[in-house]
Amino acid sequence: MKPLAIVALVASLSAGTLAQEKPVPKDSVRISIPGCSKGQMFTTTESPEHESRSTIEPGRRFRLAGPKAILKEIKAREGSMIEVTGLVRKGQVDQRGVAIGDNVRVRPGGPPVAGGAGSIGRDPNYDQVILDVEGWRQLVGECPQKKAP
């Protein structure tokens, strides 16, 4: 009976280490970005001085998706700087767009905003990238506050 228990213990421990980091799908990339959350929205900020620099420019917005427990922990840290790690689609992170030929790239635009066929503008929610959150960590500092007019 004891050998069976040992085999079960080893199997469960090895399964736990495999579940720690999922493989990245071919069409996605794993990123870690500093910023601030508000609800399910995450806005990137400048990396603190002692942290590594992010390749994502400050001010970029992401919609957070993932396990409810992780999203609840992140929501509890609203107002504090955090770094989230997760998966996004490759084409959504690249600001230069998707290459379709030599020196030709296509970037997503926004649909016209209500107001007629000739209206110029963009829906602010159109280009929000979905970040499938795998984890997060607390950073030193508070989130910048918007200045009242």
Structural class: alpha+beta
Number of strands: 7
How many discrete structural domains? 1
Radius of gyration: 20 Å
Chain oligomer state: single chain
Order of helices and strands: HEEEHEHEEE
Please mark out the parts with pLDDT under 50 across 5 or more consecutive residues, or reply none.
14-19, 115-120
TL;DR?
The protein has 149 residues and is an alpha+beta fold.
Give short descriptive properties of this protein.
149 residues, 3 helices, two-stranded antiparallel ribbon, 7 strands, five-stranded mixed β-barrel, globular, OB fold (Dihydrolipoamide Acetyltransferase, E2P)
Describe this structure in words.
The protein has 149 residues and is α+β, with helices and mostly antiparallel strands. It has one domain (24-112, 120-142): OB fold (Dihydrolipoamide Acetyltransferase, E2P). It has three helices and seven strands. A hairpin with a 2-residue loop joins strand 1 and strand 2. The protein is globular, with a radius of gyration of 20 Å. The N and C termini lie far apart (72 Å). Residues 14-19 and 115-120 have low confidence and may be disordered.
How would you summarize the topology of this molecule?
Elements lengths: L1 H17 L9 E11 L2 E4 L16 E5 L2 H9 L3 E10 H4 L4 E4 L2 E3 L22 E14 L7
Parallel strand pairs: 3-7
Antiparallel strand pairs: 1-2, 1-4, 2-3, 4-7, 5-6
